[in-house]
Amino acid sequence: MSVAANAFLYQEPGKVPSVVLAVLVHVLLAVFLFFGVHWQSRQPEAVMVELWASPPAPVTEKVEPAPEIKPEVKPEPKPEPRPEPKPEPKAVEKAVEPPKPVIAIEKKKELKKEPPKKELPKKEPSKLNLDRSKDIRAQLERETATLNQQLEKDRILDQMKRDAAMSAARADAAYISRLKGKIKSNIVLPPDIAGNPEAIFDVVQLPTGEVMSAKLRKSSGHKAYDDAVERAILKSSPLPRPDRPEQFQRGLEIKFRPQD
Amino acid sequence: MNVTQDLSILSLITNASVPVQLVMVLLLLVSFMSWLFIFRKLFAIRQAGTQTEKFERDFWSGGDMNGLYQSAVNDRHRAGSLERIFEAGFREFAKLRTQRGADPSIPVEGARRAMRATYQREMDNLERHLAFLASVGSVSPYIGLFGTVWGIMNAFRGLANVNQATLAHVAPGIAEALIATAIGLFAAIPAVIAYNRYAHDIDRLAIRFESFIEEFSNILQRQAGVGK
Fold first, then answer.
1. A15/B40 CB distance under 8 A
2. Is B195 part of any domain?
3. With a CB-CB cutoff of 8 Å, which residues 177-206 of chain B face chain A?
4. CA dihedral sign, ordered A84, A86, A87, A90
5. In this structure, is residue B190 part of a structural domain?
6. Mapping DSSP to helix (H, G, I), strand (E, B) and coil, where does residue B128 land?
7. Is A154 in contact with A160 (CB distance < 8 Å)?
8. Is A259 an 8 Å CB contact of chain B?
9. B70-106 pLDDT tens trace
10. Residue B98 lies in a domain
11. Are B4 and A55 within 8 A, CB to CB?
């Protein structure tokens, strides 16, 4: 009986202190976690991606080149063809016409008149040998012809140069847009970009299209986006080749915006 | 979700899905209980150890057995396990010895049985809650794992709706989910350590009690022979 009573008398010591201590342990744990977890705060930024990028590639590639080519092709023909034909034909006519009055004057009236500057050396012999007006005329004609030819040649050359520059620029735009399309398909956009900041990268490539380096020239201000673009550039190696090999540039400057 | 966001523990817990939060709450409770019992057992076993030490010293220093018995009966509240075993055995012995003409081995056997019974009871008291620590140690990692699996399942399901999937979409979900495992481990590790430690301590106490019972039985046997 009294033995059995002993069992009920048994009391574990330190009940209150153990409650206090258990609470203390958990408070300590909570404090540790609350302050200790701050080391992890930068981790997700560094870990980012590379695993999940491929599926959306076709979508972005289809969408992007179209809007980029159009705006660049249209504005170019308008400003350039206009200035070209107007100034050049005039220049040619002006250059060609002055000699004619000179010839007429010398032949018929034989008056001394201030010639255009270009004709200075030719006029003196004409004054001296008036008899040989035929020769002079022929010579003048020949000279105007050569002058005309020269001018024509210059004009053609000039035109060709401009054309070449224009087509190069156009092809360049297509090439750059292809480059950007490929790179963009590899960009994994970080989810929280505010606005549409521009990041500029200096890309150095080998003739095979392999990317040697991608350096950030101007940050977009959003580090995760800069990093994403840099990774995308490196991942896009080899880059698409230009249509014509002379368009190849070792160093490229490419601009990126998250929303184009 | 902000990429550069601080993964503070609070935001992780509040953003978790409901089952994961339930698991966390459960584990927190379990962890609290296990720490509570860890401390209670710590105090109890330490006290049992010092009381046993003290009683053994008193007993073997050649004190009067009746005096020891009296003091054990008088402050029963402060008596330790060994003292209670002694008290039970001595009381039974004294009762049986008064019966004349009995076999001298009978009181000794009775006293031994009484001491055995008290010993079992004391051991039961000492081992109380140890099973809880053992189950916390073995089960709470699984509970935490369940919460984690659930949370990761949710994180990946959320990924299905996003066409451009980044790690940033899943990472917070996984981090949230892993909190559950962390809490489970936090509950389990101390529980396992404490369980092993206490089981060992209680085993040693049990050996001391048993050897005391044997030795005390011998003393009673001698007394019974003398008294005859």
1. yes
2. yes
3. 186
4. positive
5. yes
6. coil
7. no
8. no
9. 888 887 777 788 888 888 998 888 888 777 666 777 8
10. no
11. no
